[in-house]
Amino acid sequence: MTRRVSGLILANVVVFFITYPPNELFRALMLVPIAIPLRPWTLVTYMFLHGGFGHLFFNMLALFFFGPRLEARLGGRHFLGLYLAAGVVGALASLITPRAAIVGASGAVYGVMLGFAYFWPRDRIYIWGILPIEARVFVGLMTAASLWFGFGGAAGGVAHFAHLGGFLGGFVYLKWMEYRSPARRFKQKVETPARRTPGSDSADLKRWERIRREEMHPVNRDELDRVMDKIKASGVGSLTPDERAFLERFTPG
After folding, report:
1. Catalytic-labelled residue, pool 94, 106, 146, 217
2. Hey, which of 1, 75, 112, 158 has its CA 20 to 30 A from 195?
3. Number of folded domains that form the chain
4. Which of 86, 66, 96 is nearest to 1 (CA)?
């Protein structure tokens, strides 16, 4: 388990026991798309509500299986950003059914599943612990099912458009991350070396030495040790753009 995944699961469980059976607080926090201008907080709060124990259990189970590895890959801040972006876009996609009451973390969790398939498309997922399917195929089938049931009007009571919005929100967030990636900016600097200033490598190293190693996932901690050892052996100039991007991602702001 990772820090943000553990926190999200805990928050969902606590809110479930506070608001279930549905009470006044539940109704104040649930999403009704047409009422978003009057209740903007529901764009976020709806994803911490659930309509029953089974609804909560399967959403948290998916978050438990897909979330930790993705958080280790993205870092806690960006993992949480993707989760919330997927949930909010899922809420906005639900405007297609403007008067439906929407609750659940499904949109956000679908964004996490999209992120998992984005980085590890060929990893196998075992449906019901038996049927193996590649992550990319699984996400494709879930997208097709949401489109079919959403526009076909079948399987009532399920927020299929929130699921689709979750996939879209997760994908857009990942693309935004790529656009803003320090590796991309570093590549541009390499192509125009005149922009680099004397002592910049030393300044970078000082910033990277402030990374809070004890707060990192063990996988990222090992990678940090490897990259810092490389710097000691060969200098900052030996780093690849991806290694610089890794260090930048965990550097305190």
Report:
1. 106
2. 75
3. 2
4. 66
